[in-house]
Amino acid sequence: MKCLAPAVFAFVTSLLLATPPACAIELSIVSGDTGNGIKVLREILDRYEKKSGNKVDIVVIPPSTTDQFGQYRLWLAAGSSDIDVYQTDVIWAPQLASQLVDLTEATRDVVGAHFPSIIQSQTVNGRLVALPIFTDAPALYYREDLLDKYHAKVPTTWKELQDTAKLVLDKERAAGNRDLWGYVFQGNAYEGLTCNALEWVMSNGGGGIIEPDGRISIDNPKATAALDRVKGWIGTIAPPGVLAYQEEEARGVWQTGNAVFMRNWPYAYALGNSENSPIKGKFDVAPLPAGDGGHPVATLGGWNLAVSKYSKHPNAAIDLVKFIASPEMQKYRTLKTSNLPTIAALYDDPDIARQQPIVPRWKPIFLNAQPRPSATARIKYNEASSQFWTAVHNTISGNGTAADNLAELEARLTRLKGKGW
Ligand code: GLC
């Protein structure tokens, strides 16, 4: 059968509910998104299928970016054509670049609508290896009702957060609220802990682990003090289980109403305010607190779509990527998920401002967010980050002191760096 033009095909199928003709291309996209991300991706893909006549399957994998990276590496190392499109974390571009299609030419007509810094982060040796679909910068989620009840103000330093969490917790527990905790965050040993710990360390004046000039800076007293403080939270204001929490576990405790404060990404905003959420209308967001004499730091996150070099349908895959990253679909995603768009104009969109007010408020926060040292450590980033989160996890679990663990970490990173990053 001869292929019909996509629009004609969509029209004909909608009339006849016919099965796709043999020439319809079948694509697969892999994603391990949090919250309702997969559901919303499916809705976007349904629209794409209608428009293009192609079919797209989602290969769903666990939400841990660390696990995803490991799996992506396996598929790519095997030259697998099973996956056409990878949903990639902002930090992975340098490490995956050689196995991804260069999108520079094909996206020339659309890249100008995205924030240049995000496009830059996905450009490796002059090749654009992924097109952004949303950006990320964390928030301090707080229970407005509980702070009001105890006349407490929104903390602007970690010390204030600690004190306020304890105050509310003590009073609420005494009143019989047994399941409440003060602060939940991502304490599991994975990339999410690197994000949290970079914020603790850098906001305390302890540097950025590896500095933009390549220098390793982590073994210093301000970094040590930052981790010592966090260690004191475990089992006091934070549940012992926080040492195993990723984003969704933290949100689980928070959204059932069992935390005064939470560190999480903007996706938790829409979910917290969803119809059956026990905390709907009871919370707000603020920038993360600052350390002693420091300034607040938000780690820059975000997600992109990349086309595998081994895809049998690279052109259709590029078309799909452009569709998902388009202003219309980013707006759709943002309205449903409160993910931050990567298209500047959407920050002035009245529907977004009304339905997801966190989005325009978070524009300056993500524009000033701190990138992880992935552009510096490049192909060694995953190893460097894993050394970092291991040292942090050991410290906050009481396995060695902060001072010893950071001294050892600095030695390990120095060895890893070798003659250079
Ligand atoms: C979020 C961020 C991503 C980060 C991850 C860590 O998904 O967008 O950049 O690596 O959290 O858990």
UniProtKB/TrEMBL annotation:
It holds the Pfam family SBP_bac_1. InterPro entries: Bact_solute-bd_prot1, SBP. Residues 1-24 form the signal peptide. Keywords: Periplasm, Signal, Transport. It is found in: Periplasm. One of its GO terms (cellular component) is periplasmic space. SUPFAM superfamilies: Periplasmic binding protein-like II. PANTHER family: ABC TRANSPORTER PERIPLASMIC-BINDING PROTEIN YCJN-RELATED (PTHR43649:SF34), ARABINOSE-BINDING PROTEIN-RELATED (PTHR43649). Belongs to the bacterial solute-binding protein 1 family. This is Putative ABC transporter-binding protein DR_1438. It comes from Mesorhizobium plurifarium. The lineage of its organism: Bacteria, Pseudomonadati, Pseudomonadota, Alphaproteobacteria, Hyphomicrobiales.
